[in-house]
Task: inverse folding
């Protein structure tokens, strides 16, 4: 038995998220189909996260356990030959049998992209939130520092979530500008359902004066979703990096 770690990139625009579900095509199902086509067996694929419909990934990790002896480089090439253009396998490597793509993850980093201009960018359709009002990235970067640390982020979790433990540790959060694009970058040991999108939406509502400045700490302490801001659109969100201890 072998355990293989696959690192992927994908455009989630036309997928119903990562995890297999009955009502739409997902990244996991598409990858499983490709693996079955090559190996002749429908292997189980374990993902590092559950990205939502429309969310993208620059670095998504998953692992499969297989008895097939195919070379890692050959498997990477074969998968890229049969997968759709929207999914790419960046690498395949052999790891310890007890490695788990989700549970062995140390931190994940997400980037949320905002196209901040009066005009649309046709090259960022479905890949960024087009937000026309001018964003003061330095001001919002200062406000975002309230997220850093170990907190109960229940106020930043969608109501439909069934997760009981809502405590997470945010390692860093930055808001930066690159021309007309504003990037919200956050790294944490884990994330709740829609957590990053609600964090970004809350910062935007501070810029709109719908949430008072310097109130994020109080909102975190309240654990009340109603006090946080709106959920930013899915298309701006990218899983950017996944970090493991020894991998």
Result:
């Amino acid at each position: 038995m072998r355990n293989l770690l696959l690192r992927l990139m994908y455009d989630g625009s036309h997928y119903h998220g990562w995890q297999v579900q009955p009502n739409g095509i997902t990244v996991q199902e598409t990858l499983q189909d490709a693996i079955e086509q090559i190996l002749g067996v429908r292997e189980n694929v374990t993902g590092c996260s559950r990205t939502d419909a429309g969310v993208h990934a620059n670095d998504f990790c998953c692992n499969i356990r297989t008895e097939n002896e195919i070379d890692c480089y050959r498997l990477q090439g074969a998968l890229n030959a049969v997968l759709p253009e929207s999914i790419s396998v960046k690498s395949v490597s052999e790891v310890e049998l007890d490695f788990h793509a989700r549970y062995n993850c140390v931190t994940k980093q997400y980037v949320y992209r905002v196209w901040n201009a009066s005009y649309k960018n046709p090259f960022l359709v479905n890949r960024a939130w087009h937000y026309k009002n001018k964003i003061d990235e330095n001001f919002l970067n200062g406000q975002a520092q309230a997220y850093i640390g170990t907190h109960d982020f229940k106020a930043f979790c969608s109501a439909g979530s069934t997760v009981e433990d809502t405590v997470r540790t945010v390692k860093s959060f930055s808001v930066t500008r690159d021309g007309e694009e504003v990037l919200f970058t956050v790294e944490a040991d884990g994330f709740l359902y829609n957590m990053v999108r609600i964090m970004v939406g809350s910062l935007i509502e501070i810029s709109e004066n719908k949430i008072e400045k310097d109130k994020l700490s109080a909102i975190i302490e309240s654990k009340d979703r109603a006090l946080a801001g709106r959920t930013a659109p899915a298309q701006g969100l990218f899983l950017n990096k996944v970090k493991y201890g020894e991998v």
